Automatic annotation (TrEMBL):
Lineage: Bacteria, Pseudomonadati, Pseudomonadota, Alphaproteobacteria, Rhodobacterales
Modified residues (N6-(pyridoxal phosphate)lysine): 629
Molecular function in Gene Ontology: glycogen phosphorylase activity; pyridoxal phosphate binding
Species annotation: Hasllibacter halocynthiae
PROSITE patterns, alphabetized: PHOSPHORYLASE (PS00102)
Protein name: Alpha-1,4 glucan phosphorylase
Length: 785
């Protein structure tokens, strides 16, 4: 019997059995949620042997350990089914019972383990590592509620706790891997005696690679009280107080990025970060030593990557474990740690570069502070260039600590890496030339093409066979199709079907250009620039202007404490309400803000997009990965020369990219002019009129001043140069209109984007890290290279 048929027969037999075992219901009475539980159980069973084999096959080989506060993995079961080659079989096995696989998969909640690009990148990396056959662990925290679930009330963002753990379908509890982590206390004779302890409980999520030959592990730590219950206290009558330890420990991983505007919040964040680092580094060393490794050969077997500065405490922790607990001489311990560690920077925004107050650090991590002082002093003595100090003005600068303790530091796009060298790390770069390298981000084509766009994948399969999914640069072989009108039609037919799918799920109208702006809401990403252009477009339509019918789609979350970002969300919704209700324009312009943006919504939106909005102020977006996903799915970009947009434009061709705006260099100069916003507004009647409408309450009739402060911010400070870039953005959008009005031209542009974006695969990125940062190789004979 061919392999596929065996699998189908097995799933057909196992799914109903599991349904009864796990939920006690028969197939004919089972709701999709019960089938999802059964499917999770069958998948764990199928993955188990691959997982065990991968661990055994990797024993003694060099491992990558990727430490990250976020893993924005998205739903896991569909991906696992696809990578294991079981998707069609699962569909058939369920169809026998009249159940749709899509409905079952939709029962899995998106794990609330991430926020934005940095977290999604980590998820793509794990999948690529697994698909390439590289021994790899992701290490993170198992948040109970993650960031937050977003809903809209009166157009305003409302944050609610996200509950997802009840339906965590794939993870496996690994009690043998639990670690106890200490905090606070004192140091005596160079040894740390913590006064508080928390247990980090290991929960492993399997990440099977394409072809099902290899499996990476995402090990998530869930904090629990070291002594969960005080019986004496309970018997003395303090029934609730007796369980306080448990509540305190759980608070550590309740939410991602807890508010840190107050001291308690800061302490909580720092403890979260240390929990992640301490448990993960202990686990790396345990694995190494269990395989017979010594401290000296750790760098030959362990590459530890710090995803931004949040896991920077991994450096002093590793030094502590080597020096204090294994007797390695301090200088040698620092050298070994540095040879293992790498640091990826994901943003140059000053507010994101962590700096912890010294006092807090001394209180919570006294031994680590001693070690950081030691690292700082030695670094100072060894670098005649005197690049500055890790401890400075009463704070520990985590970016500098991560830099000093890493053998490689990387940026995430060519432009970003260049700016790192010239701005935040200028001094350190001069002292350590060659340490900073670039690794332009990528996205996995398994999820972001094959998974989210099955119609397009089928077209590619037909033309190239299924192998393109591991070699997406081969899509360029289809370039002759750019002259094949029939094929272009089929491509655009898929796009329309994806728009219909989106309409079914979100109620968006069809028949409009889908102009999509989805990402975290932030001033530098300039959703308000898009909004002002929307207002101006509406005004122009009312004046009789002719433009391609557009649906402007926005989605994204604003950080709970970021007032202006929340105002932007409200303004978008207010404008949407007025514009969508206008009978004079509603056949040519609509605006939608889709709530609760997450990976699953992105998987629906991106394949349906005609146009990708990547309009950050040049120099501010480190790379972007959404930009890559849109291009790969055939949506040309309207964008600035920022982050990876620069490289996308080079790959897809300048003629297939709608460029506008100041360059990073020009933006810096422009910002130095004290009245840059006023100068731009005075020469742009269109901008003045749009701003004026917003400011005077044209979209908030009951409360005319509602958006006054947003408009005033653009008029007065406008750090992100919305006014300065407005006119050029308007011009680029009119070029979009003209191109869209010619369906044959537009189809060619869309297809050129899709076929030429294969380079932006995270497999290519991972190969770059393997060669230039980690010095690791795949395990021979495994993975789908
Ligand atoms: C993001 C960058 O903003 C984005 O340009 C880049 O593509 C992505 O990282 C992956 O490299 N940065 C973050 O997500 C970030 O800095 N998050 C901090 C809030 C933690």
């Amino acid at each position: 019997m061919p392999k596929d048929t065996v699998a189908a027969a097995d799933l057909g037999r196992d799914l109903p059995r599991r349904l009864m075992a796990e939920r006690g219901v028969a197939p004919e009475e089972a709701p999709p949620g019960a089938w999802a539980v059964a499917l999770g159980s069958v998948l764990r069973e199928r993955i188990g042997p691959v997982w065990v084999d991968a661990r055994r096959g990797a024993r003694g080989a060099k491992h990558v350990s990727y430490l990250s506060m976020e893993f924005l993995v998205g739903r896991l079961m569909g991906d696992a089914l696809r990578n294991l080659g079981l998707f069609d079989e699962a569909e058939e096995a369920l169809a026998v019972h009249g159940v749709r696989l899509a409905d079952v998969l939709a029962e899995e909640p998106d794990p609330a383990l991430g926020n934005g690009g940095l977290g999604r990148l980590a998820a793509c990396f794990l999948e690529s590592l697994a698909s390439l056959g590289v021994p790899a662990f992701g290490y993170g925290l198992r948040y109970e509620h993650g960031l937050f679930a977003q809903s809209l009330e009166g157009g305003r963002q409302v944050e609610r706790a996200d509950h997802w753990l009840h339906a965590d379908m794939l993870s496996v509890r690994r009690p043998a891997r639990d670690v106890t982590v200490g905090f606070a206390g004192h140091v005596a004779n160079g040894a740390w005696h913590p006064s508080e302890f928390v247990d980090a409980r290991a929960h492993d999520v399997p990440v099977p690679g394409w072809g099902g030959e290899w499996c990476a592990t995402l090990r998530l730590w869930q904090p629990a009280a070291h002594e969960p219950f005080d019986l004496q206290q309970f018997n003395a009558g303090d029934h609730v107080g007796a369980q306080e330890g448990e509540a305190r420990a759980r608070a550590l991983a309740r939410v991602l990025y807890p508010e840190d505007g107050h001291e308690a919040g800061q302490a909580l964040r720092l403890k979260q970060e240390y929990l992640l680092c301490a448990a993960s580094v202990a686990d790396v060393l345990r694995r190494h030593e269990a395989a017979g490794g010594t401290s000296a050969d750790l760098p030959d077997r362990a590459a530890i990557q710090m995803n931004d500065t949040h896991p920077a405490l991994a450096a002093p922790e590793l030094v502590r474990l080597l020096a204090d607990e294994r007797g390695v001489e301090m200088g040698e311990a620092i050298r070994i740690a540095r040879a293992c560690l790498g640091y990826t920077n994901h943003t140059l925004l000053p507010e994101a570069l962590e700096a912890w107050p010294e006092g807090l650090m001394w209180h919570l991590l006294p031994r680590h502070m001693q070690i950081i002082c030691e690292i700082d002093a030695r670094h100072y003595a060894e670098t005649p260039q005197r690049p500055g100090s890790v401890i400075d003005h009463g704070v520990v600068r985590m970016g500098d600590l991560a830099f000093v303790m890493s053998h490689r530091v990387n940026g995430v796009s060519a432009l970003h890496t260049d700016l790192m060298k010239r701005t935040v790390f200028e001094g350190l770069h001069r002292a350590h030339p060659g340490r900073i390298v670039n690794q332009t981000n990528g996205v996995t084509p398994r999820r972001w093409l094959r998974g989210c766009n099955p119609g397009l994948a089928a077209l590619y399969d037909e033309a190239l066979g299924p192998g393109w999914v591991m070699e997406p640069e081969r899509l360029r072989e289809l370039e002759p199709m750019l002259d094949d009108a029939g094929w272009l039609d089929r491509f655009m037919e898929v796009k329309r079907a994806n728009q219909a799918r989106l309409a079914g799920a979100c109620g968006t109208p069809t028949g409009f250009m889908h102009d999509v702006h989805v990402k975290r809401i932030h001033e530098y990403k300039r959703q308000h620039l898009n909004l002002l252009e929307t207002i101006a477009l509406w005004q122009d339509l009312r004046d009789g202007g002719e433009h391609a019918p557009r649906l402007k789609i926005f989605a994204g979350k604003a950080a709970p404490g970021y007032a202006l970002a929340k105002e932007i969300i409200r303004a978008i919704n207010d404008v949407a309400a007025v514009v969508n209700a206008d009978p004079a324009t509603r056949d040519r312009l609509r605006v939608a803000f889709l709530p609760d943006y997450d990976v699953s919504l992105a998987e629906l939106l991106i394949p349906a997009a005609d146009l990708s909005e990547q309009i950050s102020t040049a120099g501010k977006e480190a790379s972007g990965t959404g930009n890559m996903k849109f291009a790969l799915n055939g949506a040309p970009t309207v964008g600035t020369l920022d982050g990876a947009n620069v490289e996308i434009r080079e790959h897809v061709g300048a003629e297939n990219f709608f460029l506008f705006g100041l360059t990073a260099e020009e933006a810096m100069k422009r910002r130095a002019l004290p009245d840059h916003a006023a100068r731009a507004i005075v020469v742009s009647h269109r901008l003045e009129r749009a701003l004026d409408a917003l400011q005077r309450g044209a979209f908030s009739p009951g409360e005319p001043a509602r958006h006054a402060s947003l408009a005033a911010d653009i008029r007065r400070s406008d750090h992100f140069l919305v006014a300065s870039d407005f006119d050029d953005y308007w011009r680029a959008q009119r070029e979009v209109d003209a191109a869209f009005a010619d369906p044959a031209r537009w189809a060619r542009m869309a297809v050129a984007n899709a076929l030429r974006s294969g380079w932006f695969s995270s497999d290519r990125t991972i190969r770059g890290y393997m060669d230039e940062v980690w010095n690791v190789a795949p395990v021979p004979g495994l993975g789908s290279r």
